[in-house]
Amino acid sequence: MRTITLRRSLVALFAAAISFGAITHAQAETLRIGYQKYGTLVLLKSSGALEKRLAEKGIEVQWTEFPAGPQLLEGLNVGSIDFGTTGETPPVFAQAAGADLLYVAFEPPAPLSEAILLPKDSPITSVAELKGKKVALNKGSNVHYLLVRALEEAGLSITDITPVYLPPADARAAFERGSVDAWVIWDPFQAAAEQQLQARTLRDGQGLVSNHQFYLAARPFAEKHPEVVVALVDEIRKTGEWTRANVDEVTAQVAPLLGLSPEITRAAVERQSYGAQLITPEVASAQQKIADTFSDLKLIPKRLSIAEVIWRQPAKVAQAQ
After folding, report:
1. Distance CA 26, CA 115 (A)
2. CA angle at residue 125 from 121 to 129, to 5 degrees?
3. Which stretches of 190-280 are assigned E, i.e. beta strand?
4. Where does the signal sequence lie (predicted)?
5. Are 101 and 194 in contact (CB under 8 A)?
6. Helices 40-47 and 247-258, interaxial angle, to 10°?
7. Angstrom distance (rounded) from CA 134 to CA 63
8. Does position 18 have pLDDT exceeding 50, yes or no?
9. pLDDT tens for each residue of 262-310
10. 8 Å CB contact between 240 and 107
């Protein structure tokens, strides 16, 4: 009886080992991408170009939608995705929280794609007048840095206002009912508020912030599959080039996905930037400035080194392209 039980245990262990091996193998052959409702990755997803290219390498692609950058990077941190895109600030908060991520690529600046908005009948005319006011924003998102810089420009600090941390949908609701005095937001929510609510722009990012979009990867995946990362960035770049040359077609394709009018969608598409490329020293330096700013304000618990989390394309991969 003991022998039979032992044999059954060994069989169960063997089966479990086979199952574990199959899971590990499957994970190695799957690229899991996190995306948001709007952006170049949405167009890449709909085109199927990446799936076709990676199928030749025996790699499948899985897509998961996230409401904003901080949530997306939490998914990357816990291992549910391998790659994704966010604005400038979420990676700083994620790195400070210990996420094992790498900056892979970036899009050119898009400073008009985020802004501090006011209700159409607001008496406020300058950022300085936000002192003591309630300002809605998504904590840790790209607009967090825009708000900090705009307040600094006006001689204020984040402590001079009352931040109301809300995700975009809740922030818009608070903005509409007058529960907050201003809303810091990005496209396409920004374009929608401008056209649907006649929201006024108090300050956008022009001359103040770059508002880069970053593409990030989990370090283990990027180090194990550098050729996949290179192929992915290449397809993102191609999609961006096509988008820039086909604004009407992109607008018609994206508007139904967003549930927004073509007019709103086109405004957002035209303000976005295109042309993904690997991280440059200048962009890394700009991102370091953002990290230092949040550290100085005690919004993150420690100083960070952005240089330590920049992905470097291996020479052998570059030669193979």
Report:
1. 43
2. 110
3. 200-204, 214-218, 277-278
4. 1-28
5. no
6. 90
7. 36
8. no
9. 999 999 999 999 999 999 999 999 999 999 999 998 989 999 999 999 9
10. yes
Structure tokens that stand for 89 in this block: 């600030």
**Average pLDDT of the chain?**
88
- Calculated CA dihedral for residues 51, 54, 59, 62, nearest 10 degrees: -30
Show the domains of the chain with their CATH numbers: 7-110+212-256+274-320 (3.40.190.10), 112-204 (3.40.190.10)
The helix-helix angle for 281-296 and 142-153 (nearest 10°) equals 70
Written as six digits, the tokens of 19 are 């199952």
- What does the block give as tokens for 101? 């991520």
pLDDT at 37: 82
pLDDT (mean) for 4-16: 35
